[in-house]
Amino acid sequence: VVRRSSAVVAVALLLAVVVIASAGAQAPSPAVVAATLDNGLRVLLLEDRRSPIVSFQVWYRVGSRNERRGATGIAHFLEHLMFKGTPTYGQGQFARLVEQNGGQDNAFTSQDVTSYYVNIAADKIDLVIDLESDRMHNLRLDAKDIASEREVVIEERRTRTEDDPGGFLGEEVSSMAFKSHPYGAPIIGWMEDIKRITPDEIRAFYKTYYMPNNAILVAVGDFKAPAVLAKIRAKFGRVAKGPPPPPVLAVEPPQNGERRVIVHKQAQLPIVYLGYHVPNQKSPDAFPLEMLSTILSEGRASRLYKRLVYERQIALEAGGDYNFFATDPNLFWFWGTPMPGQTPETMEKALLGEMEKLKSEPVTDEELQRAKNQVEAAFVFQEDSVHRRASLLARFELIGGYADKDRFVERLRAVTAADVQRVARTYFSDGKKNVGVLLPRP
Amino acid sequence: MTRHRPSCVLLVVLALLLAVPAGAAKPIAHREVLPNGIVLLVAERPAVPIVVVRAFAHAGGVLDPPDRAGLANLTGALLTRGTTKHTGPELDSAIEFVGGSLSTAAGRDGMTASLAVLKKDVGLGLDLLAEVLLTPTFPPEEVKRKTAQIQAAIKRSEEDPGTVAGRALAKLVFPGHPYGVPVEGTVESVGKLTRDDVVAFHAANVRPDTTIIAVVGAIGVDDARREIQARFGGWKPPAEPPATTPSASAGAAPRNEAIEKELTQATIVLGRQAIRQTDPDYFPLSVASYVLGGGSASRLYSRVREEGGLAYAVYSYVSPARYGASFSVSAQTRTAAVPKVIEIMREEMTRMMREPVTDRELRLAKDYLIGSFPLRLDTSSKVADFVVAVEEQGLGLDYADRYKERVAKVTAADVQRVAGKYFAPDAFNRVVVGAPKP
Question: Which residues make Cβ contacts (< 8 Å) with residue A95, sequence separation at least 6?
């Protein structure tokens, strides 16, 4: 899910992931009402009566990993077009109706999923059920809308990538790290593809992936679950089931040597990224990797901040990041921005030095316990927001089942310092690193 | 992640958070003034066992001496870097070991310490909060370290066209006022700051009689008062009265500035001084701004993004603050489209002066501004930020209700009248950051 576009964004995303990677084992809450409709739509409902609002989210199991070469960015392009109207609710109606009812909506596309949300007064939930069920199968995808939205997406790419040193470098490292798997392509797509993709391809993509049996609906808020479920059945139940989308077959082959890319771009400070292939949550190693990411980056007492930013003062920022929720095995990232006067070579060496330390000596009991406490506390903090509660249920449902979120904390609690050392030794080997360096041009 | 709408929307939401308060029959928070002048605000939210605290001191960048830009910012960043009891790393470890967070930072008007802890750790959290506000030691090596970090961050921020444009615009909109100077200062000004400056700034400006403490979460009024009194009750204000800052005077004649960078996209920002919530016209202005560029149904969003495909991000917003306010219109577009986007902005601003907005637009804006406030107060952090903001800006805890009443009364004629006052395109300063030619 996390693709860094700059070191700052990486920090924000990292925090987001840590928060996400934290579910409420402690705060008592009513049970989730789960159902699967006849058409395959998975529905998770959770009553939360503290504020008169609801977070209503629809997550489709489609992201940039489902794209083929030559058509990168199509999942994200389609996400934009989901706001362009249906025969029932014409151009601009979705946003207009949501705003008119005091709601806020947005959407995002990641490597693995495309997610839509509306946060709104709880008594407006019928409207949202109408709107979301309608655009699940009824999108207009008019050629004129596609033409103008294409230009919007191009502008978005300029903001995120062309004119952003961190985003620019991240894209280069990802595309180098993956030879076969579509995780190598940028979520927003290569500029050439965004310009080329045809309306027919977008319509076909919509038909292939947007269907109830490829989606998860989650709502958390001030409602009565049985009544809402009945309404969902009535509206979403009408949407026809589709043939299961084609599976992603690509498996990234083992990496057979160090890879390196050096980018020259107008910037003020260099950036160093390191990426290592690691397993996802299907592997038991995912839990020590998740702990490792927290130990390295969560807070000012975390290892990379304390050593590289605080003590040695060679980095303005430094961190490490793991995507526990990735659908397929992805990268563990390290990143650093050298302080003025420090070179990217020093930065890289310092990051590698920290990695060697992880391999040669176990993390301390204090570090490990702190990381566990941080993750557990984050699970409680996220209970404060209906939006985050809903997102978290969806994340766990996507990787196997929402109920796994309760086992997640237990599994993390069981991680030992030896586990952390073992995964560092297993995955952070010198011959398997992907290095990206951005050298500033004035 | 790649989003449908830009995260700048978040900025707008934040601006609205200040602009669009909430309300309910029941006051949003309990308020009392402690004997040493601290304003204590408590909002109990028992459901989740967490406590969020904001301590806001009137010690922002506005109080920087003219030749000491960045002093409040440096002071704020140093509060957690050592106290009479703990070193910086000890403070970090103590709070993070319990999964909490404690951070301090200065803004234009004030310095805020933010604490978030599990309920069981509230004693520890408040101990540390009191320490960093009352007894920071500003160790010389920490001053040196933080100075270098801030300078590096300023240097790096030159990469961000939005930041560059914002700084340039503030200077044009608020000439001669502290709001025209970046809170973080410049690489040069920060380089001249000394530990003595920091110590003096803290002693003079971080003081109980200008401090607001908001306690929100799983804690009741009596417990909150006792815990705060126990740690802050003995805090004495200095003998000298609190420093004051004049409100911004009218801006100079509007100017245009072009800042050349090697970019594929240009950032355009138009801005001028506006009014704050104490002016009755603030409410029609908020509605006018929403119609012009506030949401996804706004005129600028429709013409620039939906129809023109000219931008991913385009919006307008009012930014009220304690000593002045601004109104801005902004977009990012490909270099070649800069003249066209500026032309659309000017046309739409002029059209709002010339003709009344439609009933449909007026209703949408008012319904959104009034109807969306529960979303702005749905977490403890948002409630804490909100109650501090209304107290700090002197709006009263019932501001939410008044806001809703005032917005509900806005007519199309009001919108046209304030557009006449504030939307004249020639009265705007303009900054464009980007490549000179496509």
Answer: A83, A105, B295, B296, B297
